[in-house]
Amino acid sequence: MKFIGSLQQLGRAFMLPMIVLPAAAVFLSLSQLPWDWIGLPGMAEHLRAASDIIFVYLPFIFALGISLGLTGNALSAGIASLVGMAIYVGITAEASAEIEPTVLIGAMIGIVSGVSYERFKDLRLPEYIQFFGGPRFVPIFVSVLSLLFSIGMVNLAPTLQHLMVELGDVVASGGGFGIFLYGFIHRILVVFGLHHLVSHVFWFQIGGYETEGGTMVYGDLPRFFAGDPEAGVFMAGLYPTMMFALPAIAFAIIHEAREDLKPKIRKTFLYAALASFLTGVTEPVEFAFLFVAPYLYVVHAILSGGIMWLTYELGIRHGFSFSAGAIDFLINKHLATRGWLILPIGIVVFAVYYLLFRWAITRFQIPTPGREEGSQLDEWAGDIPYRAPLILQAIGGKQNIVQMESCITRLRLKVSNDKIIDVNALRNLGAAGVIRLGGGHVQVVFGTFSELIREEMLKAITRDQAQVLFHSPVQGRMISLDEVPDPIFAGKLVGNGVAFLPDKGELVSPVKGEVIHIYPTMHAIGIRTPEGLEVLLHIGIDTSKLSGKSYFEAVVKEGDSVLPGALLIKFNLQRVRKESKSLATPMVITNSDIVHSWRYAPFKAVKKGQSSVMSVVLKESNGGGERT
To answer: CB–CB of 513/561 below 8 Å?
Structure first.
């Protein structure tokens, strides 16, 4: 899995240069409009030229984008990739007019530049030439490698280009079954965030086509936009899956949700269905059932491959610049062959998926969102600034983050220790899934909010406010303090905070601190944090009359130092429930006047010791830093 973890960063890097392709597709589509009628006779040529030049410089774009993506936007790596491409083009063009830069070459030089930066960014040379050390050494090193590589390619390139065309013919000879395998593997690799790697091979490298101008283009995607009538076989079959299959799953999840949760689930998954239909972003729906029914995801992958096989056999050829959503479908339809057939196929696909998933959810009692209290996906865009510090804590704090990037639907992290990541807390905070890929590489799927979450986490790291982060003191369900059936706690007369309904008779420390008070009946305990917060934990309501070890038993004493998760009190859950007004257990800060602001996780099920249930930012006069 460590190897897969290393590949996830490369997969994300491939996405960066692809963001320019929608512009090329839009320009090409707009060039078809009757500009002469509105007095702009040259506009069609301008738009076509703008689209063409993007594809011409696509190798440079990929070289630059991949090098930046692999290094966290290191400028020296970007410069190195551009210099490397310039050297390659200069040497090969002078040696043979038939050798043209391809996306594959751009990707290779981008990878070399990124790897070279990571290898030499801290290089120390003798003092008199140290100016050329560190990051400045990277463009020099890549220039030398590009020189040697280009000289070698002068002799090898014609043979390699011929092999690429032959490889395309071999893949095509596999017919529909080859297309099926691609579709199946593509969907499986979505789980690991590696689908861009396999797609890159088929979309930008396999198969060649000579344009009317005599230029050779390679790969299903460039060939499609260059007018190759045989291109689009590796893209057309994705349209029914993204435009119809995934929305059908979303509707099945909505209709199988509990009635009391259905309004929230409906809102969330209607947005997810719309995102998949319009833009082809599928992870918010797929990850809603991937972790609870992985066997169903395998069925989904098989069906996706079968759909691609069907579109191939029907002679459908269609392409996209970003993803197989309705926007790309309409923009690029004028270049497609029998593209209209995707719509009736999609309607059938929608019906099959909808009926299959409703049956499977009911038959196998799959706990998809809305069928249990702890639904994984929430609509909480407005809460992102408040949840970001809690998400940061659940990941292990800023000290655990080595690198943090985001793609369309997920945070892509490299952490020092992936074992301290609190998966339950991340799910509670809105993550659809957490994937450990080995070597410290972790993906957290937050859907289309991922980039916003990353930005807010970076702000939280930069601000470095004096805040205290709280863990759950019990296993059970977190509730608002307003729901506590006691006017003193509900009215916040003792202090502000949250409460819990425990389902296990153990109370643990939510913070690092010192035990300053244990009530004689041992039903309540006070802790003072290093920042000066005084935290009161009170087990149940009207429990002060319950005395004796048969009810409560403290395992710490006053003056003890405790860490988050340390056991404080054991209690007889059944007896306390029977002989008290309520099991509601408030966790309040009694000196709330020193708190500047509060943040709460969603009020739902929590595990004992789970991180990120609440955080408070202290007023400046109190100093301190992040504590867990």
So the answer is: yes
Q: Is the pTM of this model over 0.85?
A: no
Q: Which pLDDT tens digit goes with each residue over 329-355?
A: 988 888 899 999 999 999 999 999 999
The one catalytic residue in 300, 407, 471, 523 is 407
Query: What are φ and ψ of residue 317, in 5° steps?
Result: -130, 115
By the 8 A CB rule, do 238 and 265 touch? no
Q: Is the Cα dihedral 23, 26, 32, 35 positive or negative?
A: negative
Residue with the larger pLDDT of the pair 603 and 483: 483
Sheet holding 614-618, edge to edge: 467-470, 614-618, 595-600
User: Following DSSP, what letter does each residue of 196-216 receive, concatenated?
Assistant: HHHHHHHHHTS-EEE-TTS-E
What is the rounded distance in angstroms from the CA atom of residue 454 to the CA atom of residue 102? 33
Give me the DSSP letters along 532-582: S-EEEEE-SBS-TT--STTTEEESS-TT-EE-TT-EEEEE-HHHHHHHSSB
Structure tokens, 140: 């020099």
Q: Read off the DSSP letter of residue 440.
A: T
Residue matched to tokens 């801290």: 122
Q: Are 147 and 153 in contact (CB under 8 A)?
A: no
- Residue 538 annotated among the catalytic residues of the structure: yes
* Residues with Cβ within 8 Å of residue 330, at least 6 apart in sequence: none
pLDDT tens for 616-625 read 888 865 444 4
pLDDT tens digits for range 72-104: 788 899 999 999 999 988 888 776 545 667 777
Best-predicted range by mean pLDDT among 27-31, 245-249, 407-411?
245-249
Radius of gyration of the chain (CA): 29
* Whole-angstrom distance, CA of residue 59 vs CA of residue 109: 9
Q: How many CB atoms lie within 10 A of CB 111?
A: 19
CB contact at 8 A, 368 and 288: yes
Chain segment 125-153, per-residue pLDDT in tens:
887 777 788 888 999 999 999 999 888 87
Choose among 538, 503, 491: nearest CA to 518: 538
Exposure pattern of 263-277 as b/e (b: 16+ CB <10 Å)?
Answer: ebbbebbebbbebbb
The helix or strand, by DSSP H or E, that contains position 356, with its residue range, turns out to be helix 342-363
Total length of the chain = 628
Distance, in Å, from the CA atom of 526 to the CA atom of 616, rounded to the nearest integer, reads 17
Which two structure tokens, joined as six digits, stand for 456? 């807010």
3-state SS, residue 528: strand
Instruction: Please report the pLDDT score of residue 414 as a whole number.
Output: 84
For tokens 């996830």, what's the residue?
A: 8
Residue bearing the bigger pLDDT, 514 or 26: 514
Per the DSSP assignment, residues forming a β-bridge with 412 are: 405, 443
